[in-house]
Amino acid sequence: MKNRWVLFVPLAIMGLLFGAFVYRLVTPAETLIQSQWINKPMPLFDLPPATAGVEGLKSNQLADGRPRLVNVFASWCIPCRAEAPQLEALKAAGVPIDGIAIRDRPEDVAMFLREYGNPFDRIGSDMQSSVQIALGSSGVPETFLIDGKGIIREQIQGVILADQVPEIVAKLEAMK
Amino acid sequence: MTLRLILLCLIGAFAMPSAAQDRLPPAPYAYQQLKDPAQEARAKALMEELRCLVCQGQSIADSDAPLAGDMRHEVRSKIAAGESPAEIKTWLVARYGNWVSYDPPFDGATALLWFGPLLFLALGGWLAFGRFRRGASDDEEEAA
Amino acid sequence: MIAELGLALLWIAAALACLSLVAGTLFLRGGAKDLAALVRPASVAQGVLTAVAFGLLIALFVRSDMSVELVARNSNSLKPMIFKVAGTWGNHEGSMLLWLMILSLSGGLIAIFEKRLREDTLVATLATQAALSLGFFAFLLFSSNPFKRLPVAPPDGQGLNPLLQDIGLAFHPPTLYVGYVGLSVAFSFAVGALITREIGPAFARAMRPWVLGSWIFLTLGITAGSYWAYYELGWGGWWFWDPVENVSLVPWLAGAALLHSVAVTATRNALRAWTVMLAVIGFSMSMVGTFIVRSGLLTSVHSFAVDPERGTFLLALMAIYIGGALTLFALRAGSVAEGKKFALLSREGSLVINNLLLTTILALVLLGTLYPIVAEAMGEKISVGPPYYNKVAGPLALILCLVMVAGPLLSWRKDDGKRLWSRLPLAIFAGAVVLFGLVLFGGKVGILPLLGMTVAGVVAVASLAPLWGRNLRRTPLPTWGMVVAHFGVAVCLAGMGAESAFIKERLVAAAPGEVIKIGDFAVKFDGVRPVAGPNYTAIEGTLVATTSSGSSFTMRPEARTFPGLMGAAPVETNEAALLTRPGGQLYAVLGQPVANDDGSSGRYQIRLWWKPLVWWIWLGGALIAIGAALSLLGRAQLLNVWRARRARKSGERFAP
């Protein structure tokens, strides 16, 4: 029979298939969707205060020459509570932190700040996740490192851990 | 490292719609159609192509998750403001990457995806029917 | 006691599989005849024991024996009895045992019923089936033991996902599994034939009823699954190209190609290499599917709990089975002696094109499902969904349907274009009528639904063509089967096209008394009331839909809340209300309460869809299954014997 090699084609295709399977078993999928809006300017927004007694957040306030953090959180986000000590530590190290509260009622934000502290200079209220979407953020908590010119340089997804605090301080220093 | 993993899992678990929910009502255009049927049809077609960020494989048109509702609100608002579906999709892809679109892009990485089936069919056709042109002496059994 | 007995039976069954494999292998290598005589009874015994073990697992669930880990994790004493039973297979270990049971029983049934095949081929087939069983027994016994006990029995179980507490869904897995695992018989016959180099009509005849039978169950399982997703998930979609759906479709496509191919091999001794390859591919795809679903490779609303370790085990098994079978195929299929030649324009030619198109669609569904992994290896994160499949699989499927129009009308070996053309005018006319009708009166219709409905018209008429001019009472059942199945494809396609093209949607925050207009209906929202079910509470809405001709129907959608068991969060689900009319279905969902601008409540989010001809999709699926069943019956030996006896009796008394 001519072209006997043809009969090996199904086996070869199986081999490729298995290659994909082995790859996936060895390197499990990254389940978090990372923002692609990195090294891009902060989107324009003007958010009202998230609760009484705090200032709202405007995007032009984020380009004042000081590298800063923008923390996207919510009072209904349980892991966000675990982040509070780290945010306090960052504030103590001199890092300016602004907050954006996602889908949060003023009274709930107030209660959250009372219980877990307020490391934020300003907190904007994002009732319909529109700024969250404009940032390419897909959950809470997330933290964005912004340089002095208002350009987003890095996204940290999930809770900031204690050992990450010095790293973050160093990165922000380097952006000065 | 382990602690981070555990916390990430917790976050993953709590990002699920059925758990820690916000108490706010859905965004205005999450469950409300646009007045103009042509605009609504364009918005609907686009929403069916966009992937929900916090769901297990659903479009934003098919999900009750709050973030999906907010994304529907964004899409409908932008369509109402006159933007085209292509512009909105580009805007979202710029923020979330191609993952957010169920229509894979046409680039180097996806060349195999788009051309693979046609190549497969062409190769198979050539193998299966090459003998019809060659004629009598060949074996009729030719697998793809 | 019961659990331990079940486990013991499984070990014995595994030993029997080992016995079949060893005895069969030794016999085939020139061993004594006695070895061959061992294989049949061993296969039967293996089947019976595995079935009894499965029965024992069901008994444990029925008794809510919480000392067994599987029952404690997946059941609850408050569940209705039928869902306790269904809970047996609503989890990884139980469904794996179901898989094994069907695998073993199939081997036993081959051993009992297959009498015409050459002995050594049959032994090779049974040995292959035993080899398949052995691997899955190992998987079950070493890494997925369903009978594992807990050291301390909890007071009650963690319950089943409330989304799965549904009759349709309860019986969807067994139906599908009979289909997937039934294809293992085709695989075994193919490998058996390759081993003994008997790749001809005999093995094809032996295999054919199994292929048809398992494909019928696959068709029914997929159709039922689609309908379940449609009414349960609350957004009215009937196919999402979700990874788990795709891996169920792939064996179906292989089976569809195989059932055509095996018929040709059985009757015309042609397409032999295709038949063997498709038989191997069919069950291979079943295994790939079960691997993908159980290993956590892809996220899906359908996935079982993720476990990469189990995935690795399954991958190793598959490498042995699929790699082995395909290597054997590559080495031996080429040595088949030449069969009779045929022209491109002939029945055989059209079936080769059919095989080619089905295999291409199969390959592209698999490619699309797995491509995100490939892209990630290249550094990009992408999603592949309906837009891709509609653009690539859609046109191929339509071309396939057109081949289906011509195929049954072509003669074997060689036909000519003019003759074919002369049989098609009515079908083409039907398609033209549909096309012009849609273009002139249909408004804005997308290109794919437009072509789909046109092709459906052509196929509907062409599928009836083989009956033309025949005495319908004497037409053989297999011909009826073909006609009904192909007609079913047309019905299904028409339903898909009509629903996509003409669906209407209304989303309204309605106050009681408000009337919503959709399609031909005026739907009045009559408010909500609380109701309670066996293990849930719900808000039930009342909607009264009135047509323009005055008929009135009441629809009661529900928003249900299942309390979280053992501290878990409560789960909310939506029960859509469906109104089926000749022209389509009205689909209503009750959403969340909506506050008015002044803060007062009373409005509810109502979602309404009018879906023209949507139920034709599942009617078509059912017709396809019925057609295949008619074909199967038409060839059943028992039925032919009965018919012959009847004919003899009536011949004695009457002149026909």
Task: Please give a quick description of this structure.
The complex is a heterotrimer of chains A (176), B (144) and C (656). Chain A is of the alpha/beta class and 176 residues long.
Low-confidence runs of chain B: 1-19, 134-144
What order do the helices and strands of chain B follow? Answer: HHHHH
The total beta strand count of chain C reads 10
Predict the CATH topology of the largest domain in chain B: Helicase, Ruva Protein, domain 3
* Protein chains sharing the most extensive interface: B-C, 50 and 70 residues
Rg of chain B: 23 Å
* Radius of gyration of chain C from CA coordinates: 27 Å
What does this structure look like?
- The complex is a heterotrimer of chains A (176), B (144) and C (656).
- Chain A is an alpha/beta fold and 176 residues long.
- Chain A contains five helices and eight strands; from the N terminus they run αββββαβαβαββα.
- Chain B is mainly alpha-helical and 144 residues long.
- Helices cover 52% and strands 0% of the residues of chain B.
- Chain B starts with a helix and ends in a 10-residue tail after the last helix.
- Chain C has 656 residues and is α+β, with helices and mostly antiparallel strands.
- Chain C is built from 19 helices and ten strands.
- At the A-B interface, α2 and α4 of A face α1, α3 and α4 of B.
List the helices and strands and how they pair.
The complex is a heterotrimer of chains A (176), B (144) and C (656).
Chain A: H1 9-26, E1 40-41, E2 46-47, E3 57-58, E4 68-73, H2 78-92, E5 97-102, H3 106-116, E6 123-126, H4 130-135, E7 142-146, E8 151-157, H5 165-174
Parallel strand pairs in A: 4-5, 5-6
Antiparallel strand pairs in A: 1-8, 2-3, 4-7, 7-8
Chain B: H1 2-14, H2 37-47, H3 66-80, H4 85-96, H5 111-134
Helix pairs in contact in B: 2-3
Chain C: H1 2-28, H2 33-62, H3 69-74, H4 81-87, H5 92-113, H6 119-143, H7 167-196, H8 201-232, H9 243-268, H10 272-294, H11 308-332, H12 347-377, H13 386-406, H14 417-422, H15 425-441, H16 447-464, H17 477-502, E1 504-510, E2 515-518, E3 521-532, E4 537-547, E5 552-555, E6 558-562, E7 571-575, E8 577-581, E9 584-594, E10 603-612, H18 615-635, H19 637-653
Antiparallel strand pairs in C: 1-10, 2-3, 3-4, 4-5, 4-6, 6-7, 8-9, 9-10
Helix pairs in contact in C: 1-2, 1-6, 2-4, 2-5, 2-6, 5-6, 5-7, 6-7, 6-11, 7-8, 7-9, 7-10, 8-9, 8-18, 9-10, 9-12, 10-11, 12-13, 13-16, 15-16, 16-17, 17-18
